[in-house]
Specification:
- The strands form 10 sheets. This protein has a 20-stranded antiparallel beta sheet, sandwiched between helices. A 4-stranded antiparallel beta sheet has the order 23-53-52-51, with no helix packed on it. Strands 24-25-26-27 form a 4-stranded antiparallel beta sheet, with no helix packed on it.
- The two termini are 28 Å apart.
- The radius of gyration is 32 Å and the shape is globular.
- It contains 15 helices and 53 strands.
- The protein folds into 3 domains: 2-220, no CATH class; 223-383, no CATH class; 453-789, 7 Propeller (Methylamine Dehydrogenase, Chain H).
- With 790 residues, the chain is mainly beta.
- 14% of the residues lie in helices and 37% in strands.
């Protein structure tokens, strides 16, 4: 379905590009023909920073982006921009096209205008040895390191193939790339499979996303009869199976899969203009053929549709030996693969074959087959390798062409040092005259992984972190992002893959947790929170939402409380100032119907909205009284008993308002205002968390989850936190002294492979909307650390 949709978009783009473009209104229209690759991006500064710091990106683009970093940082735009690079051959070109606005060029830049003709003026932006020539064309901006390219930019008609491919790119990806078949970039994205002499495909367009240690890309590549992968046209991609038999130590796996070998043979004959042998059973009854390579060993694997027919053929060959109950035969036709599958697979002669389940493995050495047999008996296969699993999650099950390479093999193919990128794969799924392409190039650190948890990424801030990172919803990806504030009161939003989305300066420290609201009732979420003197509401991009922020003379003393009484997104924003409560609408207006007249005592806990039995309760501790109000700020339940509050929040637990006192007792208030205290043996500095059915407490070194108590090592612990995710209860707490994060289930049992390293309170969330869970904590006072729980 996804492939069909992309093809429809491609055809729509072609139609769109056939319109009359006398007036330039789309920055795509100014992309030059001759570029080897094009990058689509909506944040130039992030891209230039990423190009220097990201371990994969700088190698893929040969530092071309970094070469123009200083110039790119002089351009202020959040509009979609298109960067073009020509690095193939003698001529080196760079171009940028985007929307024009008056403040596009930074005010501190030195820019000159060169009059070319009465009707044309070209600007020159110089910085050290770099020069960017530019001009405004209608509502667009075009710049290049070539003055002649800038002069003729508006005379070039849009390349419909280029534009249509760009229109298939997603605006939600970190970036979009388009690469020509002979460009160095495409050579690298194909993991060295496409070369000057062998073109896998034509021009390709990709959506690109960056993890801290990887790049992931997927998109569409056009095929023609000269494309090598066109040989797989009119066949159907099949599920990849060869990884189940490949040794874990294999350096490279290249696989082709198909539903009809007769069609594949016909395509090969048309491509090579050569008549091929049609009487080979182990080819005629196959649906996947794969090539395994390691340092000294090469083998060919054929997956059989009818294993018995193929076995009958094998047994007509000469038996060489039996190794661990597997019969190894010598075959007569040593050049069978080289003659019948070149150039689709680059194969040498083979001499021996062995059957392992539905696979037939060929090699020029018996020892190679013995190694493969042993690997399978010991379950030491590529499919079980953690490195392969880490990238397989990003790939489709079915492939027409699949290539996997470890760091050594990738370095050899690309002629550069890619050894740290030891988990890399690219796949093509052929459909008509197009192929869907997925790829991953990743640095996989096996030492950080275990059976149950792996490090997803870490992100270091320029300054120390003020409070533990929080997790907020991303309404675009349906996953989560990470929000953190540093000691300079800057807040940073970090994506689920570890990419900085934006930074914003605040006037003070955020109090408590950031809330999310949908002011416009359109599914787009805003961030709402309070500092000591401001009430902020920010949009998805970190911009203030008018008419916020609200400034206060008196100090705000509790975190912002957000109430949505009827779940209709008619929000009420409650500010606490000492003993007073101020309620605002999302238009920053005071709510006149809310009139709280409490005592002059300090409000000790953040007011909470609790809905129970179709009634609304606003609950908080003030002085030594528990206040339970209605929507108008009037007493809903009078609690006559005084309570010496411990400072823990108020929860609704087992249908009662629940907290603790300084004596370590559980204090519960029922719906009639009656107070019940239960001895729990908690010390003065204790903490609790609770849901409607589960209560967790921690005192000294004792963690109690429901009725079960655990004795932990003595240390400096954060408060326990309860999470209810995927129909399961999780409890986290961190020993900041020992730098250990503990994770338990509702039965007070450790989750596998815990504790893990961490120095701050931990949050459990599904960051990337994949169904798995991530644990967010800190590794030190400047670094966010995210684990993936397998």
């Amino acid at each position: 379905m996804k492939k069909t949709l992309l093809i429809l978009l491609l055809l729509l783009g072609v139609s769109r590009c056939q319109r009359d473009f006398n007036t330039k209104t789309d920055a795509i229209q100014l992309i030059p023909y001759k570029m080897d690759y094009i990058i689509k991006v909506d944040n130039l500064k992030d891209l230039s920073s990423l190009s220097e710091n990201h371990p994969v990106l700088s190698k893929l683009t040969d530092n071309q982006i970094s070469n123009y970093k200083a110039l790119l940082q002089k351009l202020n735009t959040t509009d979609m921009s298109y960067l073009g690079f020509k690095v193939h051959g003698d001529e080196s070109l760079f171009s940028i096209s985007t929307k024009f606005h008056d403040s596009l060029i930074a005010q501190d830049s030195t820019a000159y205008h060169l009059p070319i003709s009465p009707s044309m003026s070209i600007g020159e932006l110089g910085l050290k040895n770099d020069t960017l020539y530019y001009r405004q064309i209608d509502s667009l901006f075009f710049g290049s390191n070539s003055q002649s390219l800038v002069s003729t930019a508006d005379t070039i008609k849009t390349n419909s193939n280029t534009a249509s491919l760009i229109h298939t790119m997603s605006d939600n990806a970190s970036a979009g790339w388009m690469a020509s078949a002979n460009s160095p970039l495409y050579h690298k994205l194909s993991l060295g499979t496409s070369t000057d002499s062998i073109s896998l495909s034509n021009t390709s367009a990709f959506d690109v996303d960056f993890d801290s240690d990887a790049i992931r890309y997927n998109g569409i590549t056009k095929l023609d009869s000269l494309s090598l992968i066109y040989i797989l046209n009119s066949t159907t991609a099949q599920e990849l199976k060869s990884q189940k038999i490949a040794p874990r130590s294999v350096d490279q796996l290249t696989s082709i899969s198909f539903n009809d070998f007769e069609q594949l043979r016909h395509n090969l004959e048309s491509y090579t203009k050569t008549k091929l042998d049609s009487t080979i059973p182990f080819l005629n009854y196959s649906d996947e053929i794969a090539l395994f390579k390691s340092e000294k060993n090469t083998s060919v694997v054929v997956h059989a549709i009818d294993a018995q027919l193929m076995k009958d053929y094998m047994e007509q060959q000469s038996l060489v030996e039996t190794f661990r109950d597997f019969s190894i035969f010598q075959i007569e036709d040593e050049s069978v693969f080289r003659r019948n599958l070149s150039p689709l697979l680059q194969l040498e002669d083979v001499n021996y074959v062995v059957q392992i389940e539905d696979f037939f493995v060929f090699s020029d050495k018996v020892s190679t087959l013995q190694t493969i047999i042993s690997s399978n008996l010991n379950n030491q296969t590529l499919s079980e390798a953690e490195a392969f699993k880490s990238i397989n999650e990003s790939l489709s099950d079915a492939s027409s062409l699949f290539v996997y390479k470890n760091g050594e093999s990738l370095s050899e193919s690309l002629g550069d040092d890619f050894k740290v990128f030891n988990a890399n794969a690219v796949q093509y799924i052929v459909e008509d005259d197009f192929a869907h392409m997925n790829g991953v190039i990743k640095s996989f650190n096996a030492s950080r992984r275990s059976a149950g948890i792996s490090e997803a990424f870490n992100y270091k801030l320029p300054d120390a972190i003020l409070n533990p990172p929080q997790v907020v919803k991303n309404h675009i990806t349906k996953g989560k992002d990470i929000l953190v504030q540093d000691v300079k009161n800057k807040i940073h939003l970090i994506s689920a893959s570890g990419r900085r989305l934006w930074t914003k300066q605040l006037t003070g420290e955020i109090l408590g947790q950031v809330e999310q609201i949908d002011i416009y009732k359109n599914g787009r979420l805003q961030l709402a929170f309070a500092t000591a003197n401001r009430l902020y509401v920010l949009d998805r991009n970190g911009n203030d939402v008018g008419p916020f922020p609200i400034k206060f003379r008196d100090k705000v003393t509790q975190p912002l409380s957000v109430f949505d009484y009827d779940s209709k997104r008619d929000y009420r924003l409650l500010i606490t100032q000492g003993s007073k409560l101020l309620m605002y609408s999302t238009k920053a207006k005071r709510i006149k119907g809310f009139d709280f007249k409490g005592s002059n005592s300090e409000i000790l806990t953040q007011p909470k909205h609790i809905r129970n039995a179709r009634k609304d309760y606003i609950v908080f501790a003030q002085g030594n009284r528990l206040k339970i109000l209605n929507r108008r700020g009037q007493n809903r339940i009078n609690v006559s008993n005084t309570i010496d509050f411990s400072g823990n929040p108020i929860f609704l637990h087992k249908n009662k308002f629940t907290t603790t006192n300084k004596n370590g007792q559980l204090v519960q208030v029922d719906m009639q205002g009656r107070v019940l205290t239960v001895a729990m043996g908690l010390k003065t500095n204790h903490s609790i968390d609770a849901t409607s059915k589960t209560l967790v407490s921690f005192s000294e070194n004792e963690l109690k989850i429901r009725a079960k108590t655990l004795d932990l090592d003595y240390g400096d612990y954060t408060a326990p936190k309860l999470f209810y995710l995927n129909d399961k209860i999780y409890v986290t707490l961190t020993d900041k002294q020992a730098k250990k994060v503990h994770l338990f289930d509702s039965k007070a049992e450790y989750m596998p492979n815990f504790p893990v390293y961490g120095s701050a309170s931990a949050t459990i969330a599904n960051l990337n909307n994949s169904g798995g869970l991530e644990l967010v904590t800190q590794s030190d006072d400047q670094t966010i650390l995210v684990y993936h729980i397998n």
